[in-house]
């Protein structure tokens, strides 16, 4: 066996390990804590002397003392080992002094804030609970008093990590969920911007803390919004949603569905344990298979309480759109924007087949097949304003049959110099976005305040 080398770093205590596991003060005979306090007080009283650039400065005094203790000439291995220990100890003492000074500064700030801050801790916690997550973190860094108030679980009832998505990793998500505990009610994660989703620090297991302790935190969650988390597929989302039994609001922007899989069938299997969902918003990121009537029936059975339904970029046809409206007994708002195959034929029978439906809002924006069949009057205009062939559905007739329904259809018209980008579906159709020069808009409502009551997120459609 090789003889131990006294110069190896493992034989000398490192500064980091010494700080993490500080050694207790010696209990040798004659040791007196007051003497140490007096020595430190005498050292700190030298603060009026110049620090540098003078023979009488404290810095020069340190240099002279260290030069005497650590001679330049090389000594024995034992001497070098002791010198290394001495330098480590010196760095440790300097670090301890620095950290003690920082604690003193925070204590003074806390004392000053406690005197000048007009609110009781309970009211401060109430105010902090109204802040967004980023502002809460900034407030907690101000002083010890604010930090203590910001650690209350109530302050983390509504966590929004979308405003600092580029700095959020799995560790941040885990800490936020742990701090919220049983107070967790809503959680937003990811990047609102689609381009930032590819640079995320998150992994497929980022939401696993919701399943810890038999889904303790997930069981209290009511609202979950996920934005452009492309690394998370159905397999990684399934255990998370299974733990969120009381979820009433689910929004997934950029859902990654299998290229040839039925997206409704996949969503149904993921959310079968979330029957309380009332608001469902799903935007798929990639091409997906067609919707079948069997998967549609199962999808409706999984969400008996849905009030607001948004299915964006799905390959829906008119028959499926009509069955969606008829299949949900409590559905009031439906958004089927960017569905490339909806032509609008189902609107002809909407007034008769769905006359008992509580539907209030129907949004069909940027549906390529519908675009040729919309006008503000009788039904059909092209981008140039000229009518095409006969209307597939009479708008005026539908307005008479269902005057209580707000219908919104916005279409972007490309300019000659516009640049567009999109995704090609397996059958050759495409879903594209482009810079626009104008928009075509069709909408009616018998209630002028109805759009104010239901907030349309036009940026997302």
Automatic annotation (TrEMBL):
Acidic residues composition-biased segments: 450-461
- What residue intervals traverse the membrane? none
Which residue stretches does the UniProt record annotate as biased composition, category Low complexity? Answer: 429-449
Instruction: Name the source's superkingdom.
Output: Eukaryota
Annotated spans, Disordered: 413-461
| Name this polypeptide is given | F-box protein At4g02760-like isoform X2
């Amino acid at each position: 066996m090789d003889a131990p080398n006294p110069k190896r770093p493992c034989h000398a205590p490192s500064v980091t390990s010494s700080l993490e596991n500080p050694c207790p003060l010696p209990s040798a005979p004659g040791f007196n804590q007051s003497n140490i306090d007096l020595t430190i007080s005498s050292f700190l009283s030298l603060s009026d002397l110049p620090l540098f650039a003078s023979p009488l400065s404290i810095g020069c005094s340190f240099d002279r003392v260290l030069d005497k203790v650590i001679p330049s000439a090389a000594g024995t291995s034992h001497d070098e080992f002791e010198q290394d220990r001495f330098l480590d100890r010196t760095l440790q003492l300097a670090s301890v002094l620095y950290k003690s000074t920082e604690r003193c500064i925070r204590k003074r700030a806390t004392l000053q804030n406690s005197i000048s801050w007009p609110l009781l801790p309970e009211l401060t916690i109430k105010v902090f609970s109204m802040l967004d997550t980023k502002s809460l973190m900034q407030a907690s860094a101000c002083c010890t008093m604010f930090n203590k108030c910001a650690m209350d679980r109530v302050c983390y009832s509504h966590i929004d990590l979308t405003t600092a998505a580029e700095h959020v990793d799995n560790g941040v998500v885990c800490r936020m969920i742990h701090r919220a505990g049983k107070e967790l009610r809503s959680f937003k994660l990811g990047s609102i911007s689609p381009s930032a989703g590819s640079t995320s620090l998150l992994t497929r297991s980022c939401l696993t803390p919701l399943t810890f302790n038999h889904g303790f935190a997930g069981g209290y969650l009511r609202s979950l919004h996920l934005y452009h988390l492309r690394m998370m597929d159905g397999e990684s989302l399934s255990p998370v949603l299974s733990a969120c039994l009381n979820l009433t609001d689910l929004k997934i922007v950029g859902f990654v569905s299998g290229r040839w899989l039925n997206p409704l069938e996949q969503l149904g299997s993921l959310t079968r344990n979330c029957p309380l969902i009332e608001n469902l918003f799903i935007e798929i990121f990639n091409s997906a298979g067609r919707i079948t009537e069997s998967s549609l029936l199962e999808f409706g059975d999984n969400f008996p309480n849905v009030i607001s339904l948004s299915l964006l970029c799905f390959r829906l046809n008119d028959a499926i759109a009509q069955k969606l409206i008829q299949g949900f007994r409590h559905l009031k708002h439906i958004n089927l924007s960017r569905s490339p195959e909806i032509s609008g034929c189902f609107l002809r029978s909407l007034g008769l087949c769905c006359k008992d439906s509580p539907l209030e809002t129907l949004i069909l924006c940027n549906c390529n097949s519908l675009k040729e069949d919309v006008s503000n009057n009788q039904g059909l205009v092209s981008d140039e304003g000229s009518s095409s062939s006969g209307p597939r559905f009479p708008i005026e007739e539908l307005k008479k049959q269902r005057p209580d329904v707000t219908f919104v259809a916005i279409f972007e018209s490309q300019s000659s110099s516009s640049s567009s980008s999109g995704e090609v579906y397996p059958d050759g159709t495409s879903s594209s976005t482009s810079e626009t020069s104008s928009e075509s808009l069709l909408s009616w409502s018998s209630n002028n305040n109805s759009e104010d009551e239901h907030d349309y997120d036009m940026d997302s459609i």
